[in-house]
Amino acid sequence: MLKNYIRIALRNIQKHKGYSAINISGLAIGMACCLLILVYVRHELSYDQFHEKSERIVRVSMDTGEQRPIAVTPSMVAPTLNQISPEVEEWVRLYEPTRYSPAIITSGQNKFQEDHFMYADSSFFKVFSFEFIAGNPETALDDPRSLILPQSTARKLFGSANPMGETVNARISNTDIDFEVTGVIKDVPTNSHFDFDYLASLNTIQRWSQLDDSNIRAANFYTYLLLNNESSIPLIENTTATFIANNLPEERIVSA
């Protein structure tokens, strides 16, 4: 019976070649579109899921009354929430000076203009999971002027040479800083919301005004919290609401 169906179908295809070609092409295009959509949706849903503690990580955003919350907060938000919230296991802040102007990176005779330079607290690798090729994730960002490079950036700056311990100069906001390479990681996956080519220790700018914890109005930092467990999210939201109501009554801080 099945052979007869196949034979009849083949005869119809041969008899109506143009019509059959249109139908088959339409079916093939439709299936291809469905597969592409499936791949895209799967990729979108996989964002940041490679972090081992992804279910317990939240980003703190600030609602200023505009259409949507902004992703940056004052520098004092993370350490303050850590002090007043037992739900917080770890915290980390990131600062991206190249949001405003590019950095000029110099390594030997090589000079590059870069748009993806970030500073991070030394706890960054305690919260987020990135695979190290060289260096110690526990201490790589402890010292001021420490610098982590993704593998492709290290190759661009140093070729096949070992970059560990090498000096990289960064001119940021008219200030020259010599960094020491203390770690190399595998390139940031495409399904990560992070997009950095250079990750430096936030201790480097400890004396700068951007890291003035007394300045509650300077919102320049991406703030992340690692909670004790996933069920702590409503508790930390209540804590942040109370905290901000007492300090910035016209604004709100929310977890995302």
What does this structure look like?
- It is a single chain.
- The chain folds into 2 domains: 2-45; 54-243, no CATH class.
- It is 30% helix and 29% strand.
- It is built from 6 helices and 13 strands.
- Strands 1, 2, 3, 4, 5, 6, 7, 8, 9, 10, 11, 12 and 13 form a 13-stranded mixed beta sheet that branches.
* Tally of helical runs: 6
Q: What share of residues is helical? A: 25-40%
Low-confidence stretches: none
Count the domains: 2
Strand content: 25-35%
Q: Could you describe the largest sheet, including whether it forms a barrel?
A: 13 strands, mixed
Q: How many angstroms does the end-to-end distance come to?
A: 59 Å
Question: Mean of residue pLDDT?
Answer: 85
Structural class: alpha+beta
Radius of gyration: 25 Å
Task: Supply the key terms.
256 residues, extended, 30% helix, alpha+beta, 13-stranded mixed beta sheet, 2 domains, 29% strand, 13 strands
SSE layout and pairings?
Elements: H1 2-15, H2 17-45, E1 57-63, E2 73-74, H3 77-84, E3 88-95, E4 103-107, E5 110-114, E6 117-120, H4 124-127, E7 132-134, E8 146-150, H5 151-158, E9 167-172, E10 175-185, E11 198-201, E12 219-227, H6 233-247, E13 252-255
